[in-house]
């Protein structure tokens, strides 16, 4: 079993400067809190050479710089059978070269097999860092050939950024669209079928290399090679590796759960999860999500 992956343990903190209010979207966004945070810009360049270590991310940097990233590949897919029992899934997404419309509910031409748990406004676009693929190939060398861009069913294969450098509700202009980080991906058992190993969802959860979802605040076309340009960071205290820590490591930290549940724009499922942990003093059962049915 691989160890978990942590956030970089050595990063230079940078300042963010308020430069005005958010731009008004051309198409009305379904998210009423869109204008609630000031815009920011970088006033010093991001450092390079961050150190990654294989240990659970119990330490995270809440002063991490907000920086641009590049969409290396844009991927969409249709529902197709997955695994020996032919479960309906849209995880097998193909790379597209043409600019594609990012809608409030997802990419034009993209589909999901289970709309109850995948897709929708809070999971419109799934992003995954290309740098994780080398780490997976190293950690699971017997399956190294499986770890290529697109393997995790992402819509956006991105470079130059990872969960340690992304915060909840970070906003970017991406092509013609404006997008906002809505949540981390919580891996499910379809990854077990995708990779042909019954522990894959559990390993992704333990690693912290989960990827994240964007909601679309302003619809518009996105193309491969587009640079996501920072607009705002309304929740600098909530990098995604801190979210990981609360979800799977320091799971009953009451102060953190209280703050988390109060975050404006938090997906309703996550708010209910945090409130249930506070009320019951216990963590929800993950088995239905990460264990393949019938195994």
Task: Note down, in words, how this protein is organized.
With 295 residues, the chain is of the alpha+beta class. 19% of the residues lie in helices and 23% in strands. β4 (80-82) and β5 (87-89) form a beta hairpin. α5 packs antiparallel against α6. The radius of gyration is 18 Å and the shape is globular. The two termini are 19 Å apart.
Question: Sheet bearing the most strands, described?
Answer: 7 strands, mixed, barrel
Number of strands: 15
Oligomer: single chain
In terms of per-residue confidence, which ranges show pLDDT below 50 for 5 or more consecutive residues?
1-27, 32-58
Distance linking N and C termini = 19 Å
Taken from the alpha-carbon principal axes, the silhouette is: globular
- Our estimate of the beta-strand percent is 15-25%
Overall residue-averaged pLDDT value: 81
Brief summary of the model shown:
19% of the residues lie in helices and 23% in strands. It has 295 residues and is an alpha+beta fold.
Task: Provide the descriptors you would attach to this structure in a database record.
3-stranded antiparallel sheet, 295 residues, single chain, 23% strand, 7-stranded mixed barrel, 7 helices, 19% helix, disordered N terminus, alpha+beta, globular
């Amino acid at each position: 079993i691989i160890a978990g992956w942590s956030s970089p343990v050595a990063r230079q903190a940078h300042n963010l400067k308020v430069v005005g209010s958010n731009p008004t979207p051309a198409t009305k966004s379904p998210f009423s809190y869109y204008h609630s945070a000031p815009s920011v810009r970088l006033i010093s360049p991001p450092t390079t050479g961050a150190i990654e270590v294989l240990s659970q991310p119990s330490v995270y940097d809440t002063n991490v710089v907000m920086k641009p990233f590049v969409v290396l590949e844009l991927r969409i897919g249709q529902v197709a059978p997955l695994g020996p029992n032919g479960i309906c899934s849209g995880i097998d997404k193909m790379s597209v070269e043409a600019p594609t419309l990012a809608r409030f509910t997802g990419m034009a031409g993209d589909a999901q097999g289970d709309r109850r748990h995948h897709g929708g406004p809070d999971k419109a676009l799934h992003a995954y860092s290309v740098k994780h693929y080398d780490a997976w190939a190293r950690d699971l060398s017997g399956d190294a050939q499986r770890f290529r861009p697109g393997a995790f069913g992402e819509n956006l294969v991105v470079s130059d950024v990872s969960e340690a450098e992304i915060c909840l509700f970070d906003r970017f202009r991406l092509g013609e669209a404006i997008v906002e980080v809505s949540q981390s991906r919580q891996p499910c058992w379809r990854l077990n079928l995708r990779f042909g190993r019954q522990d894959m969802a559990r390993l992704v959860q333990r690693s912290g290399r989960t990827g994240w979802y964007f909601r679309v605040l302003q619809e518009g076309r996105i193309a491969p090679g587009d640079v996501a340009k920072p607009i705002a960071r309304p929740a600098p205290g909530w990098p995604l590796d801190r979210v990981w820590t609360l979800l799977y490591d320091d799971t009953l930290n009451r102060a953190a759960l209280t703050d988390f549940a109060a975050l404006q724009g938090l997906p309703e499922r996550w708010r209910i999860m945090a409130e249930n942990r506070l009320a019951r003093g216990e963590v929800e059962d993950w088995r239905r999500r990460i264990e393949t049915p019938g195994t």
